[in-house]
Amino acid sequence: MVTFVIVASISAAPTYPVRVAPTGRYLVDQNGVPFLITGESPQAMIGDLSEADAELFFANRHAHGFNTVWINLLCASYTGCHSDGSTLDGIPPFTVSNDFSTPNEAYFARADRILRLAAQYGFLVILDPAETGSWLSVMQDNGVEKCRAYGRYLGQRYAAFDNILWMHGNDYQAWGSDNDQYTTAVALGIQDFDDRHLHTVELDFPVSGSLDDPSWAPIIQLNASYTYAPTYQQVLVDYNRAGPVPTFLVEASYEFENTGTPQILRAQAYWSILSGATGHLYGNHYTWQFIDGWKDQLDTPGATQMAYFKALFEPRAWYDLVPDQSNAVITTGVGTFGSDDYVTAARTPDGNLVIAYVPSARTITVDMGALAAPVMARWYDPASGGFLAISGSLLTNAGALDFTTPGDNADGPGNEDWVLVLEVPTAATAFVQGHYATPQTPQASVAVTYRAAQMAGNLNVVIVGWNDSSTSVSSVTDTHGNVYVRAVGPTVQPGPPGSGGLSQSIYYAGNIARAAAGGNTVDVRFDAAVAYPDVRILEYRGLDTTSPLDGATGQAGNSATSDSGTLITANASDLLIAANTVFTLTAGPTTGFTSRMITSPDGDMAEDAVVTGSRSYRATTPLTGTGPWVMQMVGFKAAP
Questions:
Q1: What is the DSSP string of 557-612?
Q2: Average pLDDT in the 601-616 region?
Q3: To which H or E segment does residue 540 belong?
Q4: Distance of alpha carbon 216 from alpha carbon 211, whole angstroms
């Protein structure tokens, strides 16, 4: 019997600046790795936050899986900042009020530090040099030459910052020849000294694309779609422009304003990527302007579910997806174009992948001949990040086949949007799902549930970290009776004076029993209550079902990088799983590994990589600062 699974790509942390891929359809980093914009919109950050609060925001958004932030370099009342453009503590951007020829070093030094903080957490910053809601009239008063000189100042100052993508405009309602002379002057001034970074422009609401304004065509390399209608409409307009130019959804409904329910936010994201976008920006009423209570509105459903969006697409060939504009793949049940009930779908040219977002309950018909080979078919719940298997093993790639949505998703009654995923499988190793629990009070036991159904024969991995150097794990069990074996640990690091230190162990259960969605709970018990237990559970396919463990390693230390130590594999193909428990926060994955989770608020990571060949491997993850850590890595053998 051959175990068929889906191959997940292995991605390293992005190497900025981003650039346009050879196809012109999406962005890549400097290593040519496709970059899926999964962004947030903290527009008022430089004006409204202290550096400490900026770091708090970055740490939270990094833990939610965001990789991009929109920040206004100049911010005033239109975008939630002081009317004079000064910072929270009164530093103005110019030494002479609103005079672009007098940049204030103290202000821009503050901006520099925030941009470097963003880089530390791995963020691409979409940086608006002078958002036009507040600053267009100031640009007019300064005149074209001062605007260009201001752009040159920015080009010289920020040319060496890797993590920047310039964006002009922002509700630029009055674009056109009268005002473009000022706004384009800033962009051209930047380009006089900075040819490393891409440019885009946000034009007017309620609907626009950057290339609606021909003055910007020679300047920008990325199109920004902006709409409060169903997002696929404008994204498809921009996708179909001659060129092509990659496009992303820059702004639509925000959470807690307009019609920004979690379901609408999900729809906006899925509609966009399946219409050819290279990503999108999420927005939150509290965090774009940092109004009172914003810290209590970070872990919202909308933000949490953006991580599920990224988890579905990033391991797959999203960058090759071609929108199904003629309904050749989804032939019936697509709904009405222009409405909220419309199904967006896309297919890779090789026929190995079809993904369709179905926004409401229905039956859709798929032309299975659009697939290259028999496929694995699953429903993906965008509200929980879990898969629901569709009965049958592999479905034939011929004829028409109906698929009916499963009913309510994890958001409860009335939320019936689902994502159909049809994939041609290969015999290889793949990540299936993961979850974690991080109670912030001492516990003697911690339970974590696999949210999606589990497949018989797969491998479960349980990573247990805690702030204690003397307590031990007494048992790891689950509701389906799978037997867990310790692969490595406990690895212990004494902590600073007054702390209990750090400990971590990794357990696994091979050849697991089948379980329904939400039907398997892992229970970890300690011999005494421990502080800050951090339990991560993961499921994988395609591994040896009789003797999966190939080797393990673990180390502890006190530095700005956690290091597993060296593992020498003995098998031809292995899955490497690395994890840490830290006093600071984990800033990103090891190069060549895929981050599966960074727990919140603890900042502990689980990452993996599929490797071939018997040789030595080491996992090293960057931390946000120097501090104690424990890190381990386990190798599991692929199925023979």
A1: EEEEEEEEEEEE--SSEEEEEEEEEESS-B-SPPTT-EEEEE-TTT--EEEEEEEE
A2: 86
A3: strand 520-541
A4: 7
User: Contact at 8 Å (CB) between 502 and 581?
Assistant: yes
With vertex at residue 407, the alpha carbon angle to CA 270 and CA 403, rounded to the nearest 5 degrees, is 70
Q: Does domain 38-316 have CATH number 3.40.710.10?
A: no
Looking at the domain 320-423, which fold is it? Immunoglobulin-like (2.60.40)
Separation CA 461–CA 451 (nearest Å) = 15
| Distance in angstroms (rounded) separating the CA atoms of residues 283 and 166 | 18
Q: What is the pLDDT of residues 439-476, one digit of tens each?
A: 999 999 999 999 888 888 999 999 999 998 889 999 99
The token pair that represents 512 in the structure block: 């697991």
Question: What does the CA dihedral 499, 620, 622, 157 come to, rounded to 10 degrees?
Answer: 160
Q: What are phi and psi of 110, to 5 degrees?
A: -60, -45
User: What is the DSSP-derived secondary structure letter of residue 483?
Assistant: P
> Which residues have a Cβ under 8 Å from the Cβ of 22 and sit 6 or more positions away?
none
Those residues whose C-beta lies under 8 Å from the C-beta of residue 15, and which sit 6 or more positions away, are 29, 30, 31, 33, 162
Residue 165 has a pLDDT of 98
- Nearest of 436, 428, 354, 433 to residue 387 by alpha carbon: 433
Q: Which of 384, 279, 375 is nearest to 329 (CA)?
A: 375
Backbone angles phi, psi at 193, to 5 degrees: -125, -10
Strand partners, 68: 39, 124
Q: For residues 635 and 640, what is the distance between their CA atoms, to the nearest angstrom?
A: 15
Name the pTM for this structure. Answer: 0.71
DSSP state of 68: E
Domain ranges of the chain: 38-316, 320-423, 430-637
